[in-house]
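--- STAGE predict ---
source: upstream dedup step, 1 unique chain passed
mode: sequence only
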Amino acid sequence: MFVLTDEAIESGIDAISGYIVSNVAEITNQSVKKTSEEFYLSKTFALLEEKETGYYWDSISELIDKFLIEIG
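--- STAGE serialize ---
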């Protein structure tokens, strides 16, 4: 039985973050490094990282769209 622990949530956030950075870098033709720097300073990441928001359960494509709008 899967138990949603802080460790599981943090692991999920790490995986989601990497996926978002990789995809947005490809979409925007930016380097992964630049996209990563932008993402980890973004409001989107702040929402994702805040466990109480539950964004780690949301649609990853929605988070990508949110980040793309943010970096405009």
